[in-house]
Amino acid sequence: MSESGQVGASVAFDGVQKSYDGKTLVVRDLNLEIEPGEFVTMLGPSGSGKTTVLMMLAGFEPVTHGEIRLDGNPINALPPEKRGIGMVFQNYALFPHMTVQENLAFPLKVRHMGREDIAKRVQRALEMVEMPEFGSRRPGQLSGGQQQRVAVARALVFEPNLVLMDEPLGALDKQLREQMQYEIKRIHENLGVTVVYVTHDQTEALTMSDRVAVFKDGIIQQLSTPSDLYEHPQNSFVAQFIGENNKLSGKVTEVSGETCRVDLDNGGSVTAAAINVEGKGARTTLSLRPERIELDPAEDCPNVLDGKIDELIYLGDHIRVRMSVAGNDEFIVKVPNRSGSLDLSEGTTTRVGWRTDDCRALDPVDLA
Amino acid sequence: MTQATMDQPAAPENGDGELTTADGTPLAVSLRRSHAQARRRAFFLVLPLLAFLLITFLAPIATMMTRSVQNYEVADYLPHTTEAIDGWDGTGIPDEAVFAAMAEDVRIGAENRTIGRVAARINREIPGVRSQMMGTARHIDEMTPPWKEAFIAEDEGWANPEFWRLVKRETRTLTPIYYLLSFDFEYDSHGSIVERPEEYQVYRLMFVRTAWMSLLITTLCIVLGYPVAYMLANLPLRYSNLLMILVLLPFWTSLLVRTSAWIVLLQQQGVVNDTLVWLGIIADDGRMRMIYNQIGTIVAMTHILLPFMILPLYSVMKTIPKSYMRAARSMGASPLRGFVSVYMPLTVPGLAAGVLLVFILAIGYYITPALVGGDTGIFISNMIARSMQGSTAELKLALALSTILLVAVLIFYWLFNKLVGVDRLKFG
């Protein structure tokens, strides 16, 4: 339950398609339900269609086909100003000729609110983003982080039920970005508004969201919680895009229930969880998280291969080991820096192993 | 960590608490010296331009302004009279001493053949003086004192108090007469400043007309140019490039060609009238007069000055991100509201630059009003040009008019700077 009593809006995309040129589809067939108060992130590389989806939801791009509903009401024909959706833009879009106060008052003035009411709400919004004393400055006199806060406050000041954020932290440095992530998350939790967030930064998506929709080529590749995305990627693109990933390709020789046997191209045979394989004889790409791989595993480990250590990178809390395993010389293993850990040296050959569950057989990709 | 690396790097101080460099020179001096060479080089680079401007721009303007108030004929060519008449009280006609001085001057003037110039100068204000003075000059050798009687016997004009008052007035070497004339004032026979007779009043009307027509042209340029600039800045590149060429093409075409094209279009047997007659909107004998009058000047000049409005506007609009309007609309503002309260204020630097350019260019425009303005559509600059070709006096009037125009532009610029702030402008 939110502190403000504000209720988030629900959003539904129903078979939405979008084309700019009449030849190619930028958004292919989008079906997405967003619950009230949810924080949903659209994550994907540039050109994947995520921003287009956001622009259609905001009303700046017409929907080519399909329907978008806000709280159950179709909004396809509604102009942006009638949708009541707050928005934070990539470069903040703070009006440079107005002070911070005037910027925040703008959406309230447009709604013909009383002067005192406006002043009160503006001050409250500034306090929410912890900048109560900056009201009379102009955006040009603020730092990037401060502008970002004002932009967030402006998108929220008229108490919309839905707020859209289009890569709002893209222009900030790393430290500030992390700080703002928590801040936005905190505001979201306090207000209970629905947030649709667009980013190409997977860390941002994982830390902030209730659910993440991974976009590629105008299609949602996978829509699930951050942990599910990382732990259980459904295809090779998601496995590669979210977090670090080791790929090994091979051919399925046997499928039995939820596991399958895969013969690797460069020799060796392993068992893997059969997630996205067409059946016996089909090609597959195995996905392995670097931290799930064990160096010199115990004898009962079901999957063991030989590997040569090419490079050791000391990172403090862990050691990053680059190895050549089954023809893949970008095979990364993260070894936790525990006391009594292994004595590793470059150029030596060692055994690597992993549990069957941690190795997911997904759709084949070209490893060239 | 050592103490030295912990400290902020700071220059050492000398005894007076002044910052110094390592060798003890004050920091400020050292800094100035290090920049001096660059400054000298920069100065030498602009020196040719500076000299060019001085010779071709500042010096002529200074000459123009001085000559417009100079009045040396009487003082130079009637030096004795100038001295003698100083003591005269201006009532009736002067005494013998002044006449004697005048006789001396007329004699010398007749010898040097300079008397004609003074005669012409005074004749301009009291017709008949020329023949009076020239006649006396021809017979000066035969005349004898007392000069007062002799002169009056020679020509009745010498007994005219108005003549003497004029001579006394004109002994001043600086005169505001050309500026008075520029505002349709003059001296009456008693030397006080009065309005000129209505049939001679022309310059005030011209100044006013130049101002309001320039304002109208500027307004039209805003109305026509703003949407074009907006489209230029916001259309997809392919279309905006084409549009830019359409804007620039007339800009590159000769002014005369464009003005003549308007004559072809707008004259009574021209394309526009022909089309309207053919469409039956106007009768053949009711063809509209759209050129050689104010309409002609306004249409042609608006067309010619339009790029000066469009280009600064465009350069400013180009820099306004689309997200501003989107932000305004996402906050609930209608497109109109967003445009008025967000987009338009951001275009002010370009708009102001355009207004400044167009208005200042328009106010001094010459060629187009001359070609298509007829009698009612000409500007003050056309009057200046006309006067330039006349006598010395008319030339001085032209110089006075030009100076007034220059001052008017400077006042406009100053006002504009006060209101908008020229440092905020973006010309392109």
Note down, in words, how this protein is organized.
The complex is a heterodimer of chains A (368) and B (428). With 368 residues, chain A is an alpha+beta fold. Chain A is 23% helix and 34% strand. Chain A has helices at residues 50-58, 100-110, 115-128, 144-156, 174-191, 202-208, 226-231, 236-241, and strands at residues 11-18, 27-34, 39-43, 65-70, 73-74, 85-88, 162-166, 194-199, 211-216, 219-224, 246-256, 259-264, 269-274, 283-288, 294-295, 303-314, 318-325, 328-336, 349-354, 359-362. In chain A, the strands form 4 sheets. In chain A, strands 6-7-8-3-9-10 form a 6-stranded mixed sheet, with helices on both faces. A 5-stranded mixed barrel of chain A has the order 11-12-13-20-14. Chain A has a 5-stranded antiparallel sheet with strand order 15-19-16-17-18, with no helix packed on it. In chain A, strand 9 and strand 10 (219-224) form a beta hairpin. In chain A, helix 2 (100-110) packs across helix 3 (115-128). The mean pLDDT of chain A is 90. Chain B is mainly alpha-helical. Chain B is 68% helix and 1% strand. Chain B contains 20 helices and 2 strands. Chain B has helices spanning 3-6, 27-67, 73-77, 79-84, 96-112, 115-123, 129-139, 147-154, 161-170, 177-182, 203-234, 237-252, 255-266, 271-279, 294-317, 322-330, 335-363, 367-372, 380-388, 392-419; strands spanning 185-187, 193-195. Chain B has a two-stranded antiparallel sheet with strand order 1-2. Chain B is flat, with a radius of gyration of 33 Å. In chain B, 30% of the residues are buried. The A-B interface holds A 58-60, 79-81, 83-87, 89-91, 93, 95-97, 106-107, 110-111, 154-155, 158, 164 and B 321, 323-324, 326-335, 337, 341-342, 345-346.
What layout of secondary structure does this protein have?
The complex is a heterodimer of chains A (368) and B (428).
Chain A: E1 11-18, E2 27-34, E3 39-43, H1 50-58, E4 65-70, E5 73-74, E6 85-88, H2 100-110, H3 115-128, H4 144-156, E7 162-166, H5 174-191, E8 194-199, H6 202-208, E9 211-216, E10 219-224, H7 226-231, H8 236-241, E11 246-256, E12 259-264, E13 269-274, E14 283-288, E15 294-295, E16 303-314, E17 318-325, E18 328-336, E19 349-354, E20 359-362
Parallel strand pairs in A: 3-8, 3-9, 6-7, 7-8, 13-20
Antiparallel strand pairs in A: 1-2, 1-4, 4-5, 9-10, 11-12, 11-14, 12-13, 14-20, 15-19, 16-17, 16-19, 17-18
Helix pairs in contact in A: 2-3, 2-4, 4-5
Chain B: H1 3-6, H2 27-67, H3 73-77, H4 79-84, H5 96-112, H6 115-123, H7 129-139, H8 147-154, H9 161-170, H10 177-182, E1 185-187, E2 193-195, H11 203-234, H12 237-252, H13 255-266, H14 271-279, H15 294-317, H16 322-330, H17 335-363, H18 367-372, H19 380-388, H20 392-419
Helix pairs in contact in B: 2-20, 5-7, 6-7, 11-12, 11-15, 11-17, 13-15, 15-17, 16-17, 19-20
